[in-house]
Design a protein that fits this description.
By secondary structure, the chain is an alpha+beta fold. The protein contains 2 helices and 9 strands; from the N terminus they run H-E-E-E-E-E-E-E-H-E-E. The chain has a 5-stranded antiparallel sheet with strand order 1-2-3-7-6, covered by helices on one side. The longest helix is centred in the first third of the chain and has 14 residues, at 2-15. The protein is globular, with a radius of gyration of 14 Å.
Length: 136
């Protein structure tokens, strides 16, 4: 839980705003949420903030995975969809939404519907090893 608190504080500092102006979501990433599900001990946690002007910030911290990519995708739980934001690898096991990332109008509506997700890719599971739905 302490990691999630640090992530939440970092997300707010990154975008320089208060809780009242952003939707902040805590996301747990697991292999069971991948489509199809992946058997893995790897996990992740993320804090993602979305402002009313559609700007996105936040980061993912992973555990037990040697990742080479991480993204925000558009699709409902149980489905796969296209990448909409590629995350930046900023430190060991840490992936961050790049500065200036912003959702389109359609992507923002998908966000409000719970139809965006995070996933992290490894060489062992190049289509994605862990995933978590971003639910406002």
């Amino acid at each position: 839980m302490r990691t999630l608190q640090k992530l939440g504080a970092a997300a707010l500092l990154v975008c320089g705003i208060g809780l009242a102006s952003a939707t902040t979501i805590h996301v747990r990433l697991t292999g069971a949420q991948e489509v199809p599900p992946v058997k893995t001990a790897a996990t992740g946690e993320a804090v993602i903030s979305v402002l009313p002007d559609h700007k996105v910030s936040g980061e993912v911290i992973t555990h037990g995975i040697k990742a080479f990519m991480a993204h925000i995708h558009e699709a409902a739980a149980g489905a796969n969809g296209p990448v909409i934001i590629a995350l930046q690898h900023t430190a060991a096991h840490t992936w961050r939404v790049p500065p200036g990332a912003k959702l389109t109008g359609a992507e923002y509506r998908a966000f409000l519907a719970g139809d965006l997700y995070l996933n992290v890719h490894s060489r062992r599971h190049p289509a994605g090893e862990i995933r978590g739905q971003i639910k406002p």
